[in-house]
Amino acid sequence: MNFLELDVKLQAAIVSAITSLFIFGLGWLFKVFHENYSLNYKLQKEYKFEQKKLLKEEIVKTKVPLLNAAEEFNYRIFNFNKNISKGYHNISEKEWFQTNQYYLNSFIYRFLVLIHFCIKTEEDLLSMDSTVADEEDITFLLYVKTFKNIFCESNLLTELGYKQDDDSNHFYRNELKGFSGWVVSNNKVIEFDEFVPKLKHSYDPLRRVIEYFSKIDNDDKDKTLNILRCTHLLSICFLNEFGHSYQQTDKGKIKKLNQSYKDKIKIKASFLNFLDDSKLKKKVLSNFKAGLAN
Hints:
10 helices
């Protein structure tokens, strides 16, 4: 074997060794990258799965009570539309508790129970990552937030001449939790027959809520009445999407309500903007486009 042949073989051996080292190093890097990527991917999947599971478990705790509260409030607004002219709710302050003012008291009670479960649902989820929720749960939470916000948004009433410094026909968000606490004792919602004597003996802190409902006029331009009618549309859509069959409103009633509210709701543009901001415009318009047509 001459020197040239040895040199060629040495070069081949060196090239082979370098190639082996390169392949080994590349394989090692790929393995490390793959394992890290797979681990991160697995952790992300597990995190999302766990958060979705926890969200669903928490939502379930208040879902049925909230549906029932929305149903009760929905029934009352249906009834209120029929009986507003009778003035069952129009009680002066000196008469608030002289007799059994069931209609006014139950109106207030149903409102506060609805608000309580909306606030509770939101607070129970504060420590969780709701950004990973599935579409159904996100929609449910949008309704929850919107039920609360509709009574606080003063801009809804600008079409009726409501000013920014007015506060007679809307509530401040921080007030609502305190008001809703009137229907809670030992972390449970009290029954209506427990609420009435509590209200009778110390009603002054709840004065704004009492006046909100007791001063509604039988006038389509009444500000609170317009908010209640918009809430009615919202509650029907919510119950039709998430409620039991017996809580849903059939197409015949929706058609009649569309015909009635088309002329009676005077804050249509503001309400549609509000729904758009709340990401529920398509949901409501799918049922009540005719009733909200200009």
